Amino acid sequence: MDIKVLGTGCTKCKKLEELTREVVAEMGIEANIEKEEDIYKIMQYGVMRTPGLVVDGKVVLTGRLPKTKELKELLTQ
């Protein structure tokens, strides 16, 4: 699984990266997690509000922090 956390470095963006890493470890998912902070690359995904989450090339979340349960669902769909 390829996961990208999109964000320019704000508190919510950092928290989403931390939460994503925790959930992936807890669930035993094999994933490559990257943090993308380049605003131009973020906009190429069509994301105008951060944080954003991209799973296997598909934007699954934008503009907010999910609860842990929701993040688990997003990663297992």
TrEMBL record:
Keywords: Disulfide bond, Redox-active center. Residues 1-75 form the Thioredoxin-like fold domain. The keyword Zinc-finger does not apply. Disulfide bonds join C10-C13. It comes from the Bacteria. The keyword Protein transport does not apply. The active site is at C10 (nucleophile), C13 (nucleophile). This is Thioredoxin family protein. It comes from Draconibacterium aestuarii.
